[in-house]
Amino acid sequence: MRKKIIEMRGIVKSYYLGTPNELEILHGIDLDVYEGEFLSIVGPSGSGKSTLMNILGALDRPTQGHFFLDQLPMENVKDEGLSKIRNEKIGFVFQTFNLIPRSSALNNVALPMLYGGKSRSVRTKRAKELLELVDMTARSHHRPNELSGGQKQRVAIARAMANDPAIILADEPTGALDTHTGRMVMDIFHRLHQEQGKTIILITHNTELALETERTIRLKDGSIVENKINEKIQLEGSYESA
Amino acid sequence: MNLLENIRLALEGLRANKMRALLTMLGIIIGIASVMAISTLGSAMTGSVSKTMDKIGGKNISVSLTPKNYDSQATLQPEDYITQDELNSFKETYADQIRAISLSSSLGSGKLNSGYVHKDVSVTGANPDYRLVNNINLVQGRFISDRDIQSSRNVIIIDTTLRNNLVGVNGDPTGMDITVKTKNTNETYTIIGVYEKVVIDNPLFNMGDDTRIECFIPITTAMSLNSASTSIPGYDNFTIMASANADTTAFAQITKQYFIKNMGALSDYTIEAQSMEAMVSEATSMLSTLSLGISVIAGISLLVGGIGVMNIMLVSVTERTKEIGIRKALGARNSAIRSQFIIEAIIICLIGGIIGVGLGSVLGVLGSSLLKFPSTPPVGPMIIALCFSMGIGVFFGYYPANKAAKLNPIDALRYE
Questions:
Q1: CA distance A98 to chain B (A)
Q2: How confident is the model at residue A33 (pLDDT cuts 50, 70, 90)?
Q3: Interface contact flag, B336 A100, Cβ < 8 Å
Q4: Would you call A18 an interface residue with chain B, using a CB distance cutoff of 8 Å?
Q5: Spatial contact of B120 and B109, defined as CB atoms under 8 Å apart
Q6: Which of A189, B345, B361, B381 is deepest in the core (most CB within 10 A)?
Q7: What is the pLDDT of residue A147?
Q8: Per-residue pLDDT band at B245 (split at 50, 70, 90)
Q9: Is Lipid metabolism set as a keyword in this record (chain A) (predicted)?
Q10: What's the whole-model pTM score?
Q11: B contacts of A117 (beta carbons < 8 Å)
Q12: Which whole-number Å values give the CA distances from A237 to A57, A190, A202, in the listed order?
């Protein structure tokens, strides 16, 4: 039996809009994600994808239910504790890249390690390795505004890997990219998954991309309506030739 | 997340907005510079006051007859004057407290004629103690003696400038006769001594005409020459030099009480006695009150500067909401965000403070040299100014930084 990276039982998230009108976004989500899985979460907008991602990413707390991240119970974790979990266990990749505009690619990649308390020499060494992994060494001293969308997303993926997290959470990582660069980004995810055995959760509304992953969770109106193992699609060729 | 990294981050942030950072600093720079300039100037002034005090006699008490009511048209009556007998008995009573009593009586200004030399001089009648009390530095000959006083001799002490005019720098004028014509007199005096004028390089004490040459003659001579027109039976002022261990301020009071008690009824006049120490401390306290007042105004400009810093930090936090969200998503703790912004505010203020201290010191030194006070910027206020500017950074940076630290990461990430 593989290690469970995520175990969610009966996760409910509701918002209080004024006192009586409680708005429930997630209605009891049960979800297990195993180590080394490449999972996709799909669903139309308003289905609760983002809310689920915020909870998975330790940015938000569920209103009800139990959530274990890398076997750690997430209930009663204080704000500072959530920061530590985000720093150590989670690597975010956003649709809009979210790089720090004033910092070089290298410093952006090193940033999570700075907050993790790593020394400067360790940070620089690791950041250089990661930039090499995403083939961005030549651009390591460029600022985000000097990089193309695809290059930015590669830097963002390198940054997500900085503290060797338990999961990578990718929220529409190809949403702001053209098909070609989107393909390159997806290939990097496949490589991280296969070569490094990373657990990756891809949140998307692109069903084609979802089919590339091992398993797809479909959300609708705040509930899981489908949990399907995808047939293995032969993708190796595409990135080996790339 | 250590201090050095925070400083690096803050400098990165400031570099991105150089002009804005500089304008924000301006308030701090102006505030600190004015405080620094004032304290440099102030310490230069007080320093020179105490130095001058040594020169003009810190143990002196000046006693004078003053009108009870300044509005009245009162004139001194003959019985008001302090007579020599009264003075002698006063001196006997407090022999242990008094080192010397200087008496003087001005003959007014006049013209000196001696061969080709014509000079404007002022002639003052003085007693032997005058030399000690007024710190007269005799370079040639002798000062007025008791015998000169007793026989009202026509002898005179001149200063080095006049000596140089009469006989040259290396000449000896003693024994020479000179004629001095004043308003009521035209007398010939024999030079018995030459004194060197004490140069008081302090604009605070530099009252009156400094260029006139002052000559001294025996006081009895001066008084008898004066009484040719009006009869004056005594003195209306004198200066006491208290002995080294005496408390001059207290003794001034004793002196005043003594004369009020022993002189009987005075018509419209009373006795005032003031110690030089009291006058100087009055002047110094006036100076420090003045610089305190100006410092308060400078402090207000610092406050305004601090509010400017706070304002810019608030703008900066809003501007960088998204960045704060990203940092939080990457695992930055609230404390890390807070210290990043506080340190940024501190650095703005500290750089402003350093520039201000430099500018203020230069201004202070420049200002004091313009007023002819020697000065060096005081180190104490310098350190206080720097600490204070850092304090402003902490105080006015805390609120914006805390606001940044408390941002919800989800909302901050979504912020456009």
A1: 6
A2: very high
A3: no
A4: no
A5: yes
A6: B345
A7: 95
A8: confident
A9: no
A10: 0.73
A11: 1
A12: 32, 12, 21
Which residue is it, tokens 């990135």? A239
Q: What is the structure's pLDDT at A24?
A: 87
Contact B391, B305 (CB under 8 A): no
Nearest to A115 among B322, B330, B413 (CB): B330
Cβ pair A100:B323 closer than 8 A: yes
Average pLDDT over residues A225-238: 71
CB contact under 8 A, B329 and A116: no
- Residues 63-92 on A with a CB inside 8 Å of B are 79-80, 83-84, 86-88, 92
Instruction: Give the residues across from A123 on adjacent strands.
Output: none
Verify whether the Cβ–Cβ distance A92 to B330 is below 8 Å: yes
The token duo for B44 is 């230069």
Locate B340 and state its tokens: 């990043």
Query: Is residue A155 within 8 Å of residue A127, measured between CB atoms?
Result: no
What is this model's ipTM? 0.92
Distance CA B25, CA B312 (A): 10
- Say whether A79 and B334 touch across the interface (CB within 8 A): yes
